[in-house]
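1st attempt posting a full record on here, be nice pls
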Amino acid sequence: MPADRLLPSTEAQDLIDLAKEIAREELAPIAGKYEETAHFPREQFRLLGQAGLLGLPYSERWGGGELPYEVYLQVLEEIAAAWMSVGVGLSVHTMSCFALAHHGTDEQRDRWLPAMLEGGLLGAYALSETHAGSDAAALSTRARLDGDQYVVNGTKAWITHAGEADFYTTMVRTSDDGGQGISCLLVDAATPGLSAAPPERKMGLTGSTTAQLMFEDAAVDADRRIGEEGQGLKIALSSLSSGRLGIAACAVGLAQAALDEALEYAKGRTQFGRPIIEFQGLEFLLADMAATVETSRAMYLDAARRRDRGLPFQRQASIAKLVATDGAMKVTTDAVQVLGGAGYTKDFPAERYMREAKVPQIFEGTNQIQRMVIARELRKG
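the predicted structure (as tokens):
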């Protein structure tokens, strides 16, 4: 049951059709095998770059597509529906470009952004630390200015693409002034003193590498600082607001894939002489799954349209992330239930979808943090 989309232009429809074709022909056929062997899909990211899908919301001047977030997110949803690890990776890469695209100088953008947007480079976003996850202002990775370089020491945790990325948008402490003492560095992956730990052994998204990122007297040129010293936390939080919409879109794509799998199975499986989709217990379950998918899609599109119009959207982004990721967890769990015993086996992708649905409730700010953001905005009245 393909998503029923209301797109703003024929160009947007053509882009969605391209994303569907890539998803169907290049991603879906190998997703299960790659996930089973924890194989990182670097070639697939290069393919997305060649197709012009790695820089959709950014300026054409630097190689982007200059398309509304409303369109970018629906492309992202189609990619995630075929392969969640690639969808999440696309979202992370887009967020990793945000600091340079929105807070860098023209000279910095001219120098680095084209390769980031055209597929030559893959990005990662390094904010979290073992003791500074939800409390980002507590990070301790320190950068000390020494002449025309920052010397960086510390460890980042839970970094998507760690050890695979070509650049890391990294938040570091440049003074002891709490949240005002954080700065943003665009770190080249080849920087001496920078290394990645072995990948985490995860429940799902095993094709997406996640690891610690370690800085040991890593020297980063001072001209790689994005924005002024002390602006890093502000940059990080503005990046996350947009990144949460990316995760919401990925979660909807995953839920759509689970719904499609459950529908196909329910139409083909017979019991008591008729397809099980005709039994009211399953009809209602599938109807609730469809309602959850479409409600979640509407939430992220509403937030995206606000963003595209320059309106405040932080509260709506948190609501979309909360609703879509909680919804994906429910829909994928219900998909396993529709398939019954078959859903608990690796012969069908439903069990993988269910495992993959858990982590979107955690990253880009846990859903408990989203509730705090929403409540804070409500208090402002």
